[in-house]
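Quick one, T. Sequence first:
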Amino acid sequence: MFPRSSGQRPAVSVLMPARNAERTISLALMSTLSAMSKDDELLVFDDGSTDKTLDKVYAAKDPRIRVISGTGNAGVAAGLNRLLHEARHEIVARMDADDLMPPWRFSRQIDAMSISTSAVFTTRVNFGSSPTSWRQRLPLPIRKEDAPILFVLENPVAHSSMMGWKRSILGAGGYRSGAAEDYDLWLRLLASGEDIRRIALPGLLYRLHADQVTRSPDWHQRYGNDVHLGMAHLALLRRLGWTGSQCWTILHGHAALGDEDYSTASDFSLFYNDVLLPKVSSIHRPRQRFLLNRLLVSK
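Structure tokens:
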């Protein structure tokens, strides 16, 4: 647990990139500000919005908000790196301009933070066109001991639910542009031995909509062919004891596999089932078996 002095929790810098978010950013700001203390700050990176996004931000009239302006089309990774360097506090948290959060989120995450924990996530509730169209995922915690193994097959956390140490994120190289800049960062943190965990309490209302990047027609192909993700994934596997070849494209790529790839996939399946899976908490094993089978059988 993170030590507090005089009963006060440490201050947090909240990082919110935004571009043309006029339809959702007012509610995102309102819910975020309700979870913040008077000493926290909310940094909004406006990436060249051409709608009324900035008008909505300034309409909030809260001195804790700071607007950082980009030149346009910087992208999420570049915008977040800018916000990291602008952040005044050592603890940073993420929030998206189209999501919502409950007022207890930051306090509960601070309770779960420690000097040795690089990032703490919460579980999430998905919703669609309105917050009442919600769907709850199983609110399962992820222990720091389980995280390196669970992240091998998928990214099990929502980026906008993160709270972590600024120094840890910058020490890992910050964000890199790619198909999944958040997953790439978590893989690098875990590969370097940093601790990541997720608390079971839902701390995020995650909006599902048609304009999300992961729903674009070419996203899955870019994801499976992302060189940075492949390198970070292999580095994590090396830390876990894997001595075989790169497995990222075997698990997530779309090209036809050759005989050597099938051999590697078979070896990886044995390694994951026999070496890694027995080390994971029993509550996670059914989903990991399902994911491994789905990823490999689909080939």
